[in-house]
Amino acid sequence: MNTPKSLPWYARKAGVPIERAEALWRQAVRHATADTGWVGNSEYWGATMERFRQLLSQERATLCTPQVLPFLRSHKRIMRAPIEVINDVAVLTMRHWHHYLMQARRAA
Hints:
This protein is mainly α. The protein has 2 domains: 56 residues; 43 residues. Helix 1 packs across helix 2 and helix 2 packs across helix 3. It is rod-shaped.
């Protein structure tokens, strides 16, 4: 049985090796064949993909891969902080000078 062309993408997205994803695909095909009783129609392929996604999510839950995304988000906020501070200082300086110049014009 041929695997779908999107199988490496699904495997990479779940953090599963491609060989393991192929084994999960074969298991999903067997399950869909037993479940639907037909091979090759749209109901069969839909059941196969649904079961494959379930198996991938179960496999991902068993892996001990670190989640990097929360770390990257916090790192992004930390890196943006100095830029926001400089922006605030520039705005406050501009407002101060604008206020100072307006007072000088009123006095003259």
